[in-house]
Amino acid sequence: MEREPSDEDEDPVNLISQNGRSDDAAKSTNHSNRSTLHIDHGYNRRLSRVAGSLNKKYLFAVLLPAVILVLYFTTDLRNLFSTSIPKIAGGSNSSDRMRESEFGALYLLKQQEIELFDFWNYTLSLCKLNFSNDLVNSHPSGSNGVAFPSSSMLDDLKSRVFREISMNKKIQALLLSSHGTGDFQDLNVNLTDDSFLDWNRCAKVDQKFSSRRTIDWNPRPNKYLFSICVSGQMSNHLICLEKHIFFAALLSRILVVPSPKVDYEFHRVLDIEHINKCLGRKVVVTFEEFAALKKNHLHIDRFMCYFSSPQPCFVDDDHVKKLKGLGLSMSKVESIWEENVKNPSKRKVDDVLKMFSSDDDVIAIGDVFFADVESEWVMQPGGPIAHKCRTLIEPSRLILLTAQRFIQTFLGKDFIALHFRRHGFLKFCNAKQPSCFYPIPQAGKCINRVVEMANAPVIYLSTDAAESETDLLQSFIVLNGKTVPLVKRPARSSAEKWDALLYRHGLEGDPQVEAMLDKTICALSSVFIGSSGSTFTEDISRLRRAWGTESVCDEYLCQGELPNYIAEDE
Fold this sequence. Notes:
This protein has about 575 residues and is α/β, with parallel strands linked by helices. The protein is about 45% helix and about 10% strand.
């Protein structure tokens, strides 16, 4: 709405004219001409002043942009008007660094939250346990019969608390890293106090080597034991050979290692002379050495069978032909006692001495893989024989060095080894009670538990599984949101030198050498996960006990669990 006009809005020129007319009425006519001239002269002077003022304004208006342009191109206005602000240590991207630290801290806090909930559920499950099975009921004086957790449970609790303390330290360090002077803390580094550094969840097992029960192996001159091993594959034969060593020591005889023409080529995977060096005397000879000593007069004076059924000595006509093809003559195969492979009896040393002692120069004892003679004694770390080495039967020096070079190249000091038996294992396991064949997702969950305990960055995978299975298994192996890689031995490449020793000595491509190399790598791991029912796994465990590498975290895959799905029988 427009404002109405008022007296205050009249033109100021009109007001001046009215004032002028009031003055003229009061003056005389004599002054009229002078006043006119005077007014004209003043008017000219005012015009002159106005013109000068306008010229200066125009000049200023023209020069000002020019001055601004000159200043713009010659002066660093940013530094001229900027305020000096102290920089936070860490460079110009301190705000980004701060934000990155905070996001990292939030991620770790979320992980800690998950762990705390898991710990809470774990404590609830402890309350539901059957204390008669899982707790050691000790009643110290003054107690009310309170049950104390077993050592394995206490170790698990320690591990969880240890992990939470370490996580807390990481969060603190990460939040403070943006305000410090150094780089980000490595999130894989254990940042606990010094008091925790001497504790390890997966510590090595104390094998108590000083308290081993042993016997001396002092062979009588010219007394030999010819070992016969025919059941199963290489791992079975190695266990059979180890038991034959025990029998040879008990009977005070030199052990004759089978010829590669009737058995595996043991000389390619074992250092036979290593056994003699460990004993400081000749206790083992190869078949070739035995033949040279006997000057090709090869005869087995007595051929005794440990097992009588389902077939004496496991020796069939084909194997007898192979033995005779070596130039061996032999007596009739005889069973010493009634013993069934499917249900072997527990035997003592006295039983062996009573039934297998002989004054014959050369005796042979059939396959003893399933023999149960002083099992705990035989399987103790280092074996039952007194010697100065870690163990008598171990990989050759070439295989051991190759395994060490592979570990240095691909794995590093801390790694988990997994023997994942699959080929032909489904039917074998399902025939057992309980089954030992696990679906891939369940196996992955079990492996993750061990990875979490060991906190290892990588897993060595020894397997006969198809690639489709191992690829699926890899997708389940995750720790703290990161994939833990499964590493297998790569195919031979001239660009890689870790296996050069095998190549130079003509051992590359030998399946038995490669199997022993797998065993050696697994035996040197920080933690080992084996396949229940596999002799390959059992031989690895034997080496780990003997070499002192066995960990308290070693276990069979999904130990204590049943497969969550089992197929029906045929």
